[in-house]
Design the sequence.
């Protein structure tokens, strides 16, 4: 059976209904989740690899020397990171001393780690001094000074704030640079001071980094081109740079009127800007790799009409996946075993005592009853990794599906937030 009409646009290989049952990565979701009391995150490791592979292929197709780091802040589930390493993903982008240690523990060699924190703690500076092969993208002058004191002679990268933002549906909330002054990166007008600071501490700037926002789809590619132009202008001022890291920010569709990002055009823009320069291109996607490769399965706690609105209360809330509530990045609810009957507008609520804890409003869903399970698609990124124990409702379990055999369920699935 195809996806029901209300969600047919999310159907793909590995995510569809078979004989009326939702299947994900070849597994029956309801049957799998039935073994657990708590919310369950499922991750399709091969989908994540395919997503990352598509990015690499687009860059390779333009003859660009490149490396693809996965931004582990989006999802640091160890079995998934290990699967990526085994699957040939170049490396990880990390943003704290703790993530750096975790990346090393997952078996990524220092030369396959890119570090881009906002600011630089003493602990992170000490690690970067100990591991000179890690690319350190510094985004404040204070960070340059701090690392310079500890590791004179080291190579560093600078994170540029291009002064132009780019984000999903042009959301200001998801842009890391742009109209309002942001904390991220070094503005072009401060670049000379940063270069002088590096020189004073004997540091050589060999990498230039920029991450200008999240969720870029095809309509944002013109703005993305403006970001690239700003990076190219920065490159002109940094003669020792050999690696240009364009950050993450590649988006996935969240709604039926979003189209998938035109990766060919994205790569064309990069090639047009950098192909004739003697630099390697790096990217560090998070969402594009994992968002649609994972989802959260919740149980229906209640179904109740309130002033004509059908509320379906689920046993997990925005503390497990904040993006729908915080950023308006919609997740797509799919009943695991849809009941026959007419579609009705439905509001899906979480179990947290906060007014913004609503998963989706007025989505057309078939009849639904207490105890049913609902999968929320597009919760593979920035969900478990950002979860909290708000209301002490933070429990969940997490699993990796990889390969065809059920025995490849990660035996060390993580039970999150028990405290
Ligand atoms: C420096 C940096 N790189 C990469 C990413 C990954 O971004 P995305 O998940 O949008 O690809 C982020 C996200 O916040 C970031 O801050």
Sequence:
């Amino acid at each position: 059976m195809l996806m029901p009409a209300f969600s047919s646009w999310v159907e793909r290989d590995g995510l569809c209904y078979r004989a009326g049952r939702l299947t994900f990565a070849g597994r029956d979701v309801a049957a799998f989740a039935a073994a657990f009391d708590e919310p369950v995150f499922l991750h399709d490791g091969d989908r994540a690899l395919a997503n990352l592979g598509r990015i690499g292929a687009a860059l390779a197709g333009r003859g660009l020397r490149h490396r693809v780091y996965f931004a582990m802040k989006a999802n640091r589930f160890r079995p998934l990171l290990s699967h990526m390493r085994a699957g040939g993903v170049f490396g990880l982008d990390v943003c704290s001393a703790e993530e750096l240690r975790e990346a090393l523990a997952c078996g990524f060699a220092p030369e396959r780690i890119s570090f881009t924190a906002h600011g630089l703690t003493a602990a992170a500076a000490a690690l970067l001094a100990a591991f000179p092969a890690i690319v350190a993208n510094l985004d404040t002058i204070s960070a340059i000074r701090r690392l310079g004191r500890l590791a004179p002679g080291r190579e560093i990268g600078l994170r540029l704030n291009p002064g132009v933002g780019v984000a999903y549906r042009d959301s200001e909330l998801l842009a890391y640079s742009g109209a309002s002054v942001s904390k991220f990166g070094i503005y072009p007008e401060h670049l000379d001071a940063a270069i002088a600071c590096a020189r004073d501490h004997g540091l050589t700037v060999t990498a230039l980094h920029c991450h200008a926002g999240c969720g870029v789809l095809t309509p944002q590619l013109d703005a993305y081109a403006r970001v690239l132009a700003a990076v190219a202008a920065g490159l002109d001022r940094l003669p020792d740079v050999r690696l240009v890291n364009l950050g993450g920010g590649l988006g996935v569709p969240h709604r039926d009127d979003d189209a998938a990002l035109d990766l060919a055009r994205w790569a064309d823009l990069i090639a047009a800007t950098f192909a004739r320069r003697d630099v390697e291109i790096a990217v560090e996607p998070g969402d594009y790799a994992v968002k649609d490769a994972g989802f959260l399965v919740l149980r229906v706690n209640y179904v109740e009409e309130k002033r004509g609105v059908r509320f379906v209360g689920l046993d997990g809330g925005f503390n497990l996946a904040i993006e729908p509530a915080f950023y308006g990045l919609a997740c797509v609810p799919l009943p695991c075993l849809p009941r026959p009957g007419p579609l009705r507008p439905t509001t899906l609520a979480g179990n947290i005592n906060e007014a913004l804890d609503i998963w989706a409003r007025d989505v057309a869903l078939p009849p639904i009853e207490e105890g049913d399970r609902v999968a929320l698609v597009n919760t593979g990124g920035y969900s478990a990794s950002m979860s909290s124990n708000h209301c002490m409702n933070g429990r969940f379990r997490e699993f990796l599906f990889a390969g065809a055999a059920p025995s490849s369920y990660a035996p060390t699935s993580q039970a999150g937030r028990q405290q």
About this structure: The chain has two domains: 5-45+293-416, 90-285. Residues 71, 74, 93, 116, 211, 214, 247-250, 284-288 surround pyridoxal-5'-phosphate (CB under 6 Å). The first strand starts at residue 15 and ends at 18. Residues 90-285 form a domain with the TIM Barrel fold (CATH 3.20.20.10).
